């Protein structure tokens, strides 16, 4: 078909039209969103203060191509203000190609900084009525306005006001980013503005030492500190598609990597599938070692009596040997309702806790610290205790470019250590490699484990593989495995249903891995079964029906899959072949 000239021009326009990238900047402190007006932040000298205003001008925006050239944005002046909820601006980019860096300046170049304001468009950031950042008495602009209150040495709240301005303080920021615009949809680039870095590193700001206000006059130490700190205050957090179907992050950038580091060699079985390791927290030895140190440190608890390892003991396959966890303050004060899950092969998980409420290990790692029936500590207290411990200064400086001890960095280090807890050297693994042989009883147990119970088709297995199949012996799902018939009592646990608010998720819990199950008891989310024999008996005679019972169990006869005493013993024998040899006292493969 021959196209008319109009249609040809139309398609040429579509193919060459610029793609929009929405840049959204999120001010935060210590991994948490900024809380305006709250006296919750501290300078490096421990001066408490609030931040009520964060307002600034962005200009000279450009994107760098892979060949090193820069694509400048035209009319690229934007005003961002936290209080006014102005947190974003748009980039117009070519619809093809790849960009590796974003460049922008905080402030205005001299020609705009000294330009007359008469005739400025009504909606322009350069209009004094729009941003309120024009110094009308000087004919220049405030580049960044930071304001709030601070508690002076007498304990009285005073105001503070930092106005960064003047040509010499125009500050250029260059951020690495992986950006591939397309003509089919827009992208969103999320940038974090870490106000903690802005006040602390590399040039710490003190109200007592440097003053509580500045108008950026020559020789004033505050603007010098602000401009020195600005470069490390911004980082690209992620790039996502604006369409719902393409909302996954695109090449997130590593968080706060040090200048020099040693890559950690992630060890796993060649039989395992590749895990989706966090791309914004690439494994490095320095961060793994810091995470290990934190994992075993009792200072993470309120009274110095409990560490992560207290409830996740290595001798028990990094699981809790008690039925339910007891918190740092003892059984009379802080007994939980759930058994602590085993921490093995977490790199292959995409949600955490029995109810799946945490989407990442970094998120999960901070929750027990703050839980009142677990470690019952605040993150601010943890940061204070670690900051006062000289033994942590070097590890944090080696693990993070900023060297800062923050909740985010604590969580990133713990995440890395937890990711390295990989289990893949059991008798079963050696059997698969031809290095060991199952006994006849273990082989019978495996056949039962991996065979469906379907008398109509003359299948009489134990039907375990539906929920615990594959080399990892786990799934990413949540299931009701028939422990209870109802979930509405005051002491009954709704599990996943309590998180989603959906009654059809009541009684469902994460399906755990069966690797090392021989040593990770007690079993189930509430530790109700002490032995593997009790677990097997539950699936043969103890299943309770309910509206949310897993279909793979609901199809079985009342009570469960009928197994003989010999079958039950064989099944337990096979499950014991899944124990990693590092947890065994003797290395027996026959």
Mean pLDDT across every amino acid position: 88
The main pleated sheet reads as: 9 strands, mixed
- The percentage helix is 10-25%
Strand content: 15-25%
The structural class is alpha+beta
Describe the protein's architecture and organization.
The protein has 590 residues and is an alpha+beta fold. It contains 19 helices and 20 strands. The protein starts with a helix and ends in a 15-residue tail after the last helix.
Throw out a few tags for this protein.
single chain, 590 residues, alpha+beta, Cytochrome Bc1 Complex, Chain D, domain 2, 5-stranded mixed sheet, elongated, disordered N terminus, disordered C terminus
Please render the helix and strand layout as text.
Elements: H1 5-16, E1 19-29, E2 32-33, E3 41-42, E4 48-49, E5 53-65, E6 70-72, E7 78-81, E8 88-93, E9 99-106, H2 110-113, H3 128-131, E10 134-135, E11 140-151, E12 157-165, E13 171-179, E14 187-194, H4 195-200, H5 207-210, E15 213-214, H6 221-230, E16 234-241, H7 285-295, H8 308-311, H9 361-370, H10 379-387, H11 393-399, H12 407-419, H13 427-432, H14 440-449, E17 453-454, E18 459-460, H15 465-468, E19 478-479, H16 496-500, E20 509-510, H17 532-542, H18 551-554, H19 565-575
Parallel strand pairs: 1-14, 12-15
Antiparallel strand pairs: 1-2, 1-8, 3-4, 5-6, 5-7, 5-9, 5-11, 9-13, 10-11, 11-12, 14-16, 17-18, 19-20
Helix pairs in contact: 7-11, 7-12, 9-12, 14-19, 17-19
């Amino acid at each position: 078909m021959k196209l008319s000239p109009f249609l040809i021009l139309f398609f040429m326009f579509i193919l060459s039209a610029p793609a929009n990238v929405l840049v959204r900047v999120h001010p935060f402190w210590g991994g948490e969103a900024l809380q305006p007006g709250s006296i919750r932040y501290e300078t490096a000298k421990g001066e408490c203060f609030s931040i009520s205003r964060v307002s600034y001008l962005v200009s000279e925006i450009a994107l760098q191509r892979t060949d090193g050239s820069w694509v400048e944005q035209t009319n690229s002046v934007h005003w961002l203000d936290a209080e006014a909820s102005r947190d974003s601006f748009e980039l117009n980019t070519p619809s093809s190609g790849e960009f590796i860096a974003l460049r922008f300046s905080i402030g205005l170049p001299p020609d705009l900084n000294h330009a007359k304001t008469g005739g400025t468009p009504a909606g322009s950031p350069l209009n004094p009525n729009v941003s309120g950042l024009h110094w009308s008495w000087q004919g220049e602009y405030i580049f960044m306005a930071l304001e709030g209150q601070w508690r002076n040495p007498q304990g009285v709240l005073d105001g503070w006001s930092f106005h960064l301005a003047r040509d010499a303080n125009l500050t250029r920021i260059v951020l690495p980013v992986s950006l591939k615009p397309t003509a089919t949809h827009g992208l969103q680039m999320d940038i974090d503005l870490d106000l903690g870095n802005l006040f602390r590193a590399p040039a710490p700001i003190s109200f007592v030492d440097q003053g509580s206000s500045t108008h950026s006059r020559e020789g004033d130490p505050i603007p010098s500190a602000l401009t020195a700190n600005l470069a490390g205050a911004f980082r690209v957090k992620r790039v996502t598609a604006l369409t719902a179907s393409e909302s996954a992050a695109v090449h997130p950038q590593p968080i706060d990597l040090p200048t020099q580091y040693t890559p950690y060699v992630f060890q796993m079985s060649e039989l395992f599938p590749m895990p989706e390791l966090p791309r914004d927290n690439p494994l490095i030895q320095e961060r793994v070692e810091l995470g290990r140190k934190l994992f075993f440190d009792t200072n993470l608890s309120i009274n110095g009596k409990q560490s992560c390892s207290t409830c996740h003991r290595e001798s028990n396959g990094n699981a809790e040997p008690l039925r339910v966890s007891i918190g740092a303050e003892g059984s009379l004060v802080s007994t939980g309702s759930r058994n602590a899950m085993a921490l093995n092969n977490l790199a292959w998980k995409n949600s955490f806790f029995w109810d799946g409420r945490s989407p990442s290990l970094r998120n999960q790692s901070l929750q027990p610290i703050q839980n009142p029936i677990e470690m019952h500590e605040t993150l601010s207290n943890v940061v204070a205790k670690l900051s006062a411990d000289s033994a942590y200064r070097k590890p944090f400086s080696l693990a993070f470019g900023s060297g800062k001890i923050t909740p985010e960095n604590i969580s990133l280090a713990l995440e890395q250590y937890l990711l390295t807890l990989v289990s893949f050297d059991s008798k079963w693994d050696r059997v698969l490699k031809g290095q060991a042989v199952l006994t006849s009883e273990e082989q019978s147990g495996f056949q039962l484990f991996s065979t469906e119970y379907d008398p109509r088709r003359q299948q009489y297995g134990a039907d375990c593989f539906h929920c615990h199949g594959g080399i990892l012996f786990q799934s990413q799902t949540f299931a009701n495995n028939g422990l209870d018939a109802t979930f509405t009592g005051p002491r009954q646990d709704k599990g996943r249903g309590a998180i989603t608010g959906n009654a059809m998720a009541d009684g469902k819990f994460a399906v755990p891995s069966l690797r090392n199950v021989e040593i990770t008891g007690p079993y189930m989310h509430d530790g109700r079964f002490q032995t593997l024999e009790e677990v097997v008996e539950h699936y043969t005679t103890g299943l309770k029906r309910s509206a949310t019972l897993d279909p793979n169990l609901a199809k079985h006869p009342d009570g469960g899959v009928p197994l003989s005493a010999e079958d039950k013993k064989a099944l337990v024998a096979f499950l014991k072949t899944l124990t990693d040899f590092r947890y065994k006292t003797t290395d027996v493969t026959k």
